[in-house]
Amino acid sequence: MLGFGLAIEPQLWALLFVMVRIGAMFIVAPVFGNVSVPLPVRVTLSGAVGILVLGSMTIQPPPTVFALSTFVAIAAEALVGLAIGFIVQIAFAAPLVAGELIGGSMGIGFANMIDPNSGRSSPAVGQFLSILLTLLFLSLDGHLVLVDMVMKSYTALPPGAAWMAAGQLRDIALFGGYAFMAGLLLALPVGFLLLCLNLVMGMLSRSAPSLNLFSVGMPASLAVGVISLAIALPAMGDYMQVIVREGLAAARSLVLG
């Protein structure tokens, strides 16, 4: 019942209630939460996954729509979905951190462009690494793992008992440091070579003060940065797979314990 003497189909109300958690995850999750994904597509995917959830398990929605307990239950469902998608999105911030470090060391930190995934301005190197991480995420079936995880969450965190505990919220906050650590490790091969180049240029400036470092250092930094990035790309790709697995493992630990 709606609460004002009006009725709603039980199956439709159950589907709408299930779609809250799924839709909240799709808002912030990688790939699904990109601005390039239209809103009708997200709603359709939420409904399709919601039908799978209702077909595989029994969900008891609140009996009355317009009630305080119902609003609290909906807020709890949205919190669980946002937490699942957000903890994976944290891992996807690592390429942006690495792009800032590499771009600043190469001297192209000013080279920004609009990221089609987020709609915000981001470094060109970071955007390249972010697109590469997204492709690896899809190749590893990370999007399917997320859908499977949100379905299993209805067993581990059933509706009505789905409030995130203080320990789970603490784990999300602590996992935020992983983005900086992973970004630093991702940028380490290229950043180390650029650091060595800066040391060499510093010694040259002391031994030959008349040398114009602006005319030599900038092209050298760009050349070494591009070459080292091309050489280190296979190793960076392997570590990006680790980042994807760590993000999914953190989400799985958040849901299943």
Automatic annotation (TrEMBL):
<dbReference type="GO" id="GO:0044780">
    <property type="term" value="P:bacterial-type flagellum assembly"/>
</dbReference>
<protein>
    <recommendedName>
        <fullName>Flagellar biosynthetic protein FliR</fullName>
    </recommendedName>
</protein>
<keyword id="KW-0812">Transmembrane</keyword>
<dbReference type="GO" id="GO:0006605">
    <property type="term" value="P:protein targeting"/>
</dbReference>
<comment type="function">
    <text>Role in flagellar biosynthesis.</text>
</comment>
<feature type="transmembrane region" description="Helical">
    <location>
        <begin position="95"/>
        <end position="114"/>
    </location>
</feature>
<keyword id="KW-0282">Flagellum</keyword>
<feature type="transmembrane region" description="Helical">
    <location>
        <begin position="39"/>
        <end position="59"/>
    </location>
</feature>
<keyword id="KW-0969">Cilium</keyword>
<feature type="transmembrane region" description="Helical">
    <location>
        <begin position="213"/>
        <end position="235"/>
    </location>
</feature>
<dbReference type="Pfam" id="PF01311">
    <property type="entry name" value="Bac_export_1"/>
</dbReference>
<keyword id="KW-0975">Bacterial flagellum</keyword>
<dbReference type="InterPro" id="IPR006303">
    <property type="entry name" value="FliR"/>
</dbReference>
<feature type="transmembrane region" description="Helical">
    <location>
        <begin position="126"/>
        <end position="151"/>
    </location>
</feature>
<feature type="transmembrane region" description="Helical">
    <location>
        <begin position="172"/>
        <end position="201"/>
    </location>
</feature>
<feature type="transmembrane region" description="Helical">
    <location>
        <begin position="12"/>
        <end position="32"/>
    </location>
</feature>
<keyword id="KW-0966">Cell projection</keyword>
<comment type="similarity">
    <text>Belongs to the FliR/MopE/SpaR family.</text>
</comment>
<dbReference type="GO" id="GO:0005886">
    <property type="term" value="C:plasma membrane"/>
</dbReference>
<feature type="transmembrane region" description="Helical">
    <location>
        <begin position="65"/>
        <end position="88"/>
    </location>
</feature>
<dbReference type="InterPro" id="IPR002010">
    <property type="entry name" value="T3SS_IM_R"/>
</dbReference>
<keyword id="KW-1003">Cell membrane</keyword>
<dbReference type="GO" id="GO:0009425">
    <property type="term" value="C:bacterial-type flagellum basal body"/>
</dbReference>
<keyword id="KW-1133">Transmembrane helix</keyword>
<keyword id="KW-0472">Membrane</keyword>
